[in-house]
Each structure stands twice: as structure tokens, then as C-alpha cells.
Amino acid sequence: SNSRSRSSDRYECDCCNETFNRREKLFEHKAEAHRGAMTVRCEVCRKCFEDDAELAAHDRTHTADERAGRCS
């Protein structure tokens, strides 16, 4: 599923962790904010990216300790 229910009335985007009180709003958000094929996921924070280059640039924002804690 493209969404996780944070609580009975909150829906969390699995790409950026923004939350919405209606499932329809989550779907609208994903259609607008994440139009591309967001198929590459950061193993530290679970954010999505369009390609490996974007992920590599993002990965540098995490500390060495955060990166070391990833499952491989």
C-alpha cells in the first residue's frame, strides 16, 4: 500500500512522512508532490527519490552513525 495509517484518522505519505486526515488528501498529495517514479528509498529515513544520484546526494545529509545503523 502507498499509505500507512498513523492512527485511525491520520494517513502518512511513505515518501515524505507528511500526514493527512483524509485518505483522499494523501492521494492528491502524492499525485502532485511525488509525480515521478519515486522508486529509490533511503534506508535511514524511508524518503523516496527518483534515482540513485538523488539518493546519494540525500544520503550525505545523514550522519555516519545513522548510516551505520541501516540494515543491509
Report on the structure:
The chain has two domains: 1-35; 36-72. Helix content is 33%, strand content 21%. It has helices at 23-33, 52-59, 64-68, and strands at residues 3-7, 10-13, 19-20, 40-41, 48-49. It is flat and about 35 Å long. The two termini are 23 Å apart.
Overall helicity: 25-40%
Shape: flat
Number of strands: 5
Alpha carbon gap, first and last residue: 23 Å
- Output the helix-strand order: EEEHEEHH
Summarize the structure.
The protein is α+β, with helices and mostly antiparallel strands. It contains 3 helices and 5 strands, in the order E-E-E-H-E-E-H-H.
Entry keywords:
72 residues; 2 domains; disordered N terminus; single chain; 5 strands; alpha+beta; two-stranded antiparallel sheet
Task: Set out the fold topology.
Elements: E1 3-7, E2 10-13, E3 19-20, H1 23-33, E4 40-41, E5 48-49, H2 52-59, H3 64-68
Antiparallel strand pairs: 1-2, 2-3, 4-5
InterPro entries: Znf_C2H2_sf, Znf_C2H2_type
Organism: Pararge aegeria
Domain C2H2-type: 11-39, 40-67
